[in-house]
């Protein structure tokens, strides 16, 4: 699969090269026209556009071409004087679209959302003030295994190794803080302040991001983007990233031991985790499930990676807050295969899972461990699952048990007219909106739990940030995801507290003609925090959220807002958002009671609270 992916990329790239010439000609005409208008409007101050012919042979051109080759079409940015010339080279590339954001944090989150939909994302920021502002988003991309190329404009190359104090720094001659911060949250850092090694550094950074599926940092001195250099004379040859190949002998041994272990189990199950995505093993996972007949469950952080319409799907395994009957089947199994799990304090509900290591097989992207051992390395997930599928005896005992005991969950009660809207009713209606042409984006907060219970139809996207859990992520991620996945309508569920962190970039969504539907769930505070540990700090100032979005809209672009307090108003708003306003950004503020939470949050909150407050171990 990996191989065919690269072959496809190759074909796409050749295609792009062929089209480039005609696109360049078109762009040149466009720029000439724009230049004439600009010259009239600002005599003597017209920006000097880079004519496509003259940009080739420079770092700026090389970087722009590389981004296009790997599949980036939109770059999220905030300009600054340390990087403006670089931006000129990016906009000179006909196939790149620069999207200006309100702040760097959102630009980083947008690159994250874009990478989720397209496989890779990029953002450009200025030196230190921009770089330090985007850090939180890049750390989040690391936690989610997303290849995000974070490009920062750097100081003039002559300033390295001098004692000068530069602006946009903390006022010391040492200006390496930005680099040192990025060292801890990216898998590679390229500091380009010399043309001679620029080609190698840029290419190593970009290819490392793709190979490791992690973010990288590229800093480019602001005086270099436009200087031609021999190494950039030719169009960069597209990357060929050799696929990882398992050690055949280890693979055989791992499969043999696992098959022996599972074939003697009475009611085995399989549970998919979040690393299925980075291992690109979703298809192999389904093939294994089909071949062995075991039930398949998904860990909360893996939601969206396991097909929920599969006949063996039994729900989300999340310990005490699992979907109905799922935990019972998983925890009573005598063997379970966890594929790509991450067990942390949240996914383990405060370390309360009833899972025994000796009954488990843990399949990671490059390693398989059976029970307390043995453990096999340099075995890749897809190879392993595919080979294991051929060696397992079919055993449908656990699926049959599940079907015997299963009772469907209750349906939210119909309320009297004008009764305040309940969260469970809101999500009943969101469920009805889902299809293969939608994607759900779930913000940290009670939306984690409410969205977790949505039943995803085939091809419905699902994104959230459960390992890192930084509130505000979803606004930028919605912007980036919608820009990358034009065939899907994004449905974002965002709490009021989270929205207050990053609200500004609603502006960028409107400016780019996006048509996402945002449900702003206004419960007057940080409800998820209330359930872990309450205090006066969990109450927030109420805003006029629709008023805010209307003010940002300001009559430019297509945006529609509504405030809803009852089920009738909600139904009417959804009808408008999917009908008359289907081509607009739709923002629906849903007012609910401050204590109206999912029941899962109540249970999970008390368990996480107990784990947080474990006393120190005796010394
Ligand atoms: C950047 C960041 N700051 C603080 C937190 C701690 N935190 C976790 S959830 C949360 C509140 C979320 O409130 P809201 O978005 O309104 O969600 P809900 O009320 O639905 O739970 C806070 C402050 C965090 N996760 N990330
Ligand atoms: C499952 O495996 C057990 C142990 O090998 C076997 O006894 C049982 O018949 C199998 N059940 C089904 C339905 O395949
Ligand atoms: C909230 O904003 C809207 C404009 O979008 C306005 O009509 C409404 O009066 C405002 N509400 C309050 C309480 O000011
Ligand atoms: C607007 C702009 O391009 N700003 C600066 C970017 O860096 C070069 C090189 O240092 C400067 O000449 C530009 O003024
Ligand atoms: Mg809230």
Automatic annotation (TrEMBL):
<dbReference type="InterPro" id="IPR047214">
    <property type="entry name" value="TPP_PDC_IPDC"/>
</dbReference>
<dbReference type="InterPro" id="IPR012110">
    <property type="entry name" value="PDC/IPDC-like"/>
</dbReference>
<dbReference type="GO" id="GO:0005829">
    <property type="term" value="C:cytosol"/>
</dbReference>
<feature type="transmembrane region" description="Helical">
    <location>
        <begin position="6"/>
        <end position="23"/>
    </location>
</feature>
<dbReference type="InterPro" id="IPR029035">
    <property type="entry name" value="DHS-like_NAD/FAD-binding_dom"/>
</dbReference>
<keyword id="KW-0456">Lyase</keyword>
<keyword id="KW-0472">Membrane</keyword>
<dbReference type="GO" id="GO:0030976">
    <property type="term" value="F:thiamine pyrophosphate binding"/>
</dbReference>
<keyword id="KW-0812">Transmembrane</keyword>
<dbReference type="GO" id="GO:0000949">
    <property type="term" value="P:aromatic amino acid family catabolic process to alcohol via Ehrlich pathway"/>
</dbReference>
<feature type="binding site">
    <location>
        <position position="523"/>
    </location>
    <ligand>
        <name>Mg(2+)</name>
    </ligand>
</feature>
<dbReference type="InterPro" id="IPR012000">
    <property type="entry name" value="Thiamin_PyroP_enz_cen_dom"/>
</dbReference>
<dbReference type="GO" id="GO:0004737">
    <property type="term" value="F:pyruvate decarboxylase activity"/>
</dbReference>
<feature type="domain" description="Thiamine pyrophosphate enzyme N-terminal TPP-binding">
    <location>
        <begin position="61"/>
        <end position="163"/>
    </location>
</feature>
<keyword id="KW-0786">Thiamine pyrophosphate</keyword>
<feature type="domain" description="Thiamine pyrophosphate enzyme TPP-binding">
    <location>
        <begin position="465"/>
        <end position="590"/>
    </location>
</feature>
<feature type="binding site">
    <location>
        <position position="496"/>
    </location>
    <ligand>
        <name>Mg(2+)</name>
    </ligand>
</feature>
<keyword id="KW-0460">Magnesium</keyword>
<comment type="subunit">
    <text>Homotetramer.</text>
</comment>
<dbReference type="GO" id="GO:0006950">
    <property type="term" value="P:response to stress"/>
</dbReference>
<dbReference type="InterPro" id="IPR012001">
    <property type="entry name" value="Thiamin_PyroP_enz_TPP-bd_dom"/>
</dbReference>
<keyword id="KW-0479">Metal-binding</keyword>
<protein>
    <recommendedName>
        <fullName>pyruvate decarboxylase</fullName>
        <ecNumber>4.1.1.1</ecNumber>
    </recommendedName>
</protein>
<keyword id="KW-0210">Decarboxylase</keyword>
<keyword id="KW-1133">Transmembrane helix</keyword>
<feature type="domain" description="Thiamine pyrophosphate enzyme central">
    <location>
        <begin position="257"/>
        <end position="372"/>
    </location>
</feature>
<dbReference type="InterPro" id="IPR029061">
    <property type="entry name" value="THDP-binding"/>
</dbReference>
<dbReference type="Pfam" id="PF00205">
    <property type="entry name" value="TPP_enzyme_M"/>
</dbReference>
<dbReference type="Pfam" id="PF02775">
    <property type="entry name" value="TPP_enzyme_C"/>
</dbReference>
<dbReference type="GO" id="GO:0000287">
    <property type="term" value="F:magnesium ion binding"/>
</dbReference>
<dbReference type="InterPro" id="IPR047213">
    <property type="entry name" value="TPP_PYR_PDC_IPDC-like"/>
</dbReference>
<dbReference type="Pfam" id="PF02776">
    <property type="entry name" value="TPP_enzyme_N"/>
</dbReference>
<comment type="similarity">
    <text>Belongs to the TPP enzyme family.</text>
</comment>
<dbReference type="GO" id="GO:0036293">
    <property type="term" value="P:response to decreased oxygen levels"/>
</dbReference>
<dbReference type="InterPro" id="IPR011766">
    <property type="entry name" value="TPP_enzyme_TPP-bd"/>
</dbReference>
<feature type="binding site">
    <location>
        <position position="525"/>
    </location>
    <ligand>
        <name>Mg(2+)</name>
    </ligand>
</feature>
């Amino acid at each position: 699969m990996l191989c065919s992916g690269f072959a496809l990329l190759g074909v796409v790239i050749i295609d792009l090269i062929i089209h480039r010439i005609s696109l360049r000609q078109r762009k040149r005409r466009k720029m000439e026209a724009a230049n004439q208008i600009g010259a009239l409007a600002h005599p003597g101050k017209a920006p000097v556009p880079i004519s496509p012919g003259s940009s080739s042979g420079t770092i700026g051109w090389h970087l722009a071409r590389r981004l296009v080759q790997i599949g980036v079409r939109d770059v999220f940015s905030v300009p600054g004087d340390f990087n403006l010339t670089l931006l000129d080279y990016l906009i000179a590339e006909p196939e790149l679209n620069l999207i200006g954001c309100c702040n760097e944090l959102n630009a980083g989150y947008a690159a994250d959302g874009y990478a989720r939909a397209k496989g890779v994302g990029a953002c450009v920021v200025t030196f230190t003030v921009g770089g330090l502002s985007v850090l939180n988003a890049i750390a989040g991309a690391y936690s989610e295994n997303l290849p995000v190329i974070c490009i920062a404009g750097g100081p003039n190359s002559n300033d390295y190794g001098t004692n000068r104090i530069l602006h946009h720094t903390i006022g010391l001659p040492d200006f390496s803080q930005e680099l040192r911060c990025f060292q801890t949250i990216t898998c590679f850092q390229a500091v380009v302040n010399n043309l001679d090694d620029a080609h190698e550094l840029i290419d190593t950074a970009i290819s490392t991001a793709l190979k490791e599926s992690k973010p990288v940092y590229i800093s480019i001195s602001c005086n270099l983007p436009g200087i031609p250099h021999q190494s950039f004379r030719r169009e960069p040859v597209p990357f060929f990233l050799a696929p990882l190949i398992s050690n055949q002998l280890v693979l055989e041994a791992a499969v043999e031991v696992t098959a022996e272990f599972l074939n003697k189990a009475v009611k085995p199950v399989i549970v998919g985790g979040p690393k299925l995505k980075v291992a690109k093993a979703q298809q192999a996972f389904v093939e294994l499930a089909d071949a062995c007949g075991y039930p398949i469950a998904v860990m909360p952080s893996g939601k969206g990676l396991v097909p929920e319409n599969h006949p063996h799907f039994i729900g989300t395994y999340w310990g005490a807050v699992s979907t109905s009957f799922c935990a019972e089947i998983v925890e009573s199994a005598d063997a379970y295969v966890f594929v790509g799990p991450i067990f942390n304090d949240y996914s383990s509900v405060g370390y309360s899972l009833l899972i025994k290591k000796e009954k488990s097989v843990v399949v990671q992207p490059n390693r398989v461990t059976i029970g307390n051992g043995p453990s096999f390395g340099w075995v890749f997930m897809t190879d392993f699952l595919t080979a294991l599928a051929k060696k397992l005896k079919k055993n449908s005992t656990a699926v049959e048990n599940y079907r015997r005991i299963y009772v469907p969950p209750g349906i939210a009660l119909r309320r009297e007219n004008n009764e305040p809207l309940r969260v469970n009713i809101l999500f009943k209606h969101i469920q009805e909106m889902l299809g293969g042409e939608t994607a759900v984006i779930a913000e940290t907060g009670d939306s984690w739990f409410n969205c977790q219970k949505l039943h995803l139809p085939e091809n419905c996207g699902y994104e959230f940030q459960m390992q890192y859990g930084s509130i505000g992520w979803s606004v930028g991620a919605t912007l980036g995801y919608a820009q990358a996945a034009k065939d899907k309508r994004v449905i974002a569920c965002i709490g009021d507290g989270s929205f207050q962190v990053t609200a500004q970039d609603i502006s960028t969504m409107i400016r780019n003609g996006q048509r996402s539907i945002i449900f702003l769930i206004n419960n007057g505070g940080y409800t998820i925090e209330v359930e872990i540990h309450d205090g006066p700090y969990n109450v927030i100032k109420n805003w006029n959220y629709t008023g805010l979005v209307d003010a940002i809209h300001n009559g430019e672009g297509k945006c529609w807002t509504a405030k809803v307090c009852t089920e009738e108003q909600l139904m009417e708003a959804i009808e408008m958002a999917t009908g008359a306003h289907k081509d607009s950004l739709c923002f629906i503020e849903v007012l609910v009671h401050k204590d109206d939470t999912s029941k899962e949050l109540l249970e999970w909150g008390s368990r996480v609270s107990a784990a947080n407050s474990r006393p120190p171990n005796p010394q």
